[in-house]
Amino acid sequence: MPKTEVTISLDRDAAIYAPGETVTGVVTLDVPDTENVRKVLAVLRWATSGKGDTDSDDMARTELVGKHEFRMGTHQFPFELTLPVAPVSYHGTLLKIDWSVHVRLDRPWAFDIKEDLAFEVV
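^ that's the sequence the OP posted. Answer follows.
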């Protein structure tokens, strides 16, 4: 059975933002069959990686769709999420801080469908 595909696209060609700016874009769902969801969320998330402990935090979120039954086809949802003033992206030797837009389809009685799109905050 084909799976629903999630695509995230930003309104900027260069995915570079300044602290405090608003990240805008569109989430596209390609549904091959009927898809029931509890909700569709878009989240701004930063995460650390590298040596030592990792950490992450969801800084902004918006519910794109509440409980809904999608029919076969393509469905698009615009989103706007505002960045905080810190932290900024960082790629050091021991530590990295990365930002992404994370989309999650919360599905009842099934694994959630998740997609991430990375961007930079400088």
